[in-house]
Amino acid sequence: MENSNKRPLEDECQYLHTETKKPKASQVASTTLHPKSSKETASIEDLCDDIIVYLYKFLSHDNLAKMALVSPNLFRISNDWTLWKKPKFEQFDKSMEYIYLGYLKNTTTEIRISYDDVQSPDHSVSHNFLMQLEAMCPELEHLTLRNQIFDANEINVRVLHRKLKSLTIDNTTIENIPDSSSYLCGINNSCPDLEKIIMTNNDWFLPNCLYALAKLERLSYLSLAGCKQFKDCIPYASITAITGFKSLHTLDLRFTPISDHELVCFQRLTSLKSVLLESPSYMNHERDATITDLGLAGFCTVAFEFHYPYIQILIDRRGGVNLRRVQDRHGDLNRCSIETLCVRNYPKVTDAFLKTAARNCPHLKSLDITGSCCTLEEIEYYKASRPRTKGLEVDAFFIFYFWSFLDDALLAINLFH
């Protein structure tokens, strides 16, 4: 039986009082003269409930679940609803899933599941666990899955919680994805309220996945950083920019091998305000298609005149793309009014882009072109022309000039010898 003198955890307004007698002076003296033996130790269960709950907040929730197995009293305290509002399972163990589920509350709004930096089936979430989340956590809005291994035949977007507003799948392997469709096909029906999606460092993310994400009407933030297979996706980038992504505000494509061709397509998203780009280390800017002044120039105009053959893009049920020239077309095309632009480590970005941005891009609030070929003189001119634009710090460009100087110095030494 639990101690009836302890304050109930879930009702902070109720206190149970017991009568206490004032100790006699002789008793106080006796306590003072005869202290407890130094060999006697206190247990964590000797602490009051509030202190134990406070200490529990410093544990990951998988460790908290293990602590609760020590005694019935610690189990009772570990069930406090404030501890399970946003559980983080940093060392997820599939064999303990039934215990984790027992702790989840109807007030749980966020769940994070990961296991170090190593992927293992024994530390990956199961189909049964994800299926029960909607019943156990009706208010769940944020779900993070990191370093997991899934079988597409068992775990797909149909098992996700319908009320999710943000979904993160990072560094995850998905096996047995059918060739006939993308893994994310139907996500707009399974999770129609999604506003933020982070799909980072996933080699399974192919260009056809973009078509599924474009159907999410409330999506405002999309990160595909580190997805190496997201390349040569002009047809999908073009069709999704025309038909989807109506609310997209931020697009993070850092460390993806995209080029000017895809970038021009995304510039048609009139709601887009922030674009983050950074070259992956394996990219060869002399040989591969890359980002240049030409691709970035589209961010510096709100509209432009065009004259090119009108191409009809058809996507079949299997994700195949067919292009067909229809007719020559003339007209005006609206573009996004970008406010934040990060373009790091692209050597084919030069002073030409800065001159265009200084002249035609008054709405730009933050600009980062670290690792470009822009000269210090042009950077200073841009800062003088657009003093409200942040991010153009001179120190950020010394790295590029240092390496250029070092290369020239080594070349001179070799010629001298």
TrEMBL record:
Domain of life of the organism encoding this protein: Eukaryota
InterPro entries, alphabetized: F-box-like_dom_sf, LRR_dom_sf
Single GO biological process annotation from the record: SCF-dependent proteasomal ubiquitin-dependent protein catabolic process
GO CC terms, sorted: SCF ubiquitin ligase complex
Protein name: F-box domain-containing protein
Higher taxonomy: Eukaryota, Metazoa, Ecdysozoa, Arthropoda, Hexapoda
